[in-house]
Specification:
The chain has helices at 3-10, 12-31, 34-66, 73-103, 112-140. With 148 residues, it is an all-alpha fold.
Length: 148
Amino acid sequence: MDWVHLHLALNHVPVIGSLFVGLLLISAVLKKSEELKRLSLWWLVGLTVVGIPIKFTGDFAVDDAKKIPGIEHPLIEAHEQSADQATTGIFLAGLLAGIVLFVARNGKSVPRWGMIAALALSLVTFALMARAANLGGQIRHPEIRNSD
């Protein structure tokens, strides 16, 4: 298995994970469950812990991918820039979740501002992840490219 293969195998985790965590956060807010709030915040921290290294598999894969015949380098560069933005989003969301969990330590309730901010950041992160995934898919799937 090379870096390209590893990247393709793992890159679905942060995309699907950010959607899952966003839905979990929505559920936690609607149900007003402290346990579900904490669980969703911990999942967001966990997603960050695995999401950032997964992005680096792409950094290692880029040189190998550029050697593949027929690959358009501007598509790789657009995907890479978008992945950087998505990684920044997941980092900020995980950092925020960690801060909210710290504020809510020792049995304190999870602050409403923290849940709203985490939810907003997780939804923005999902959008960034979906965009990065779409641009990555366009590298080898011309049928999903815009036909301008």
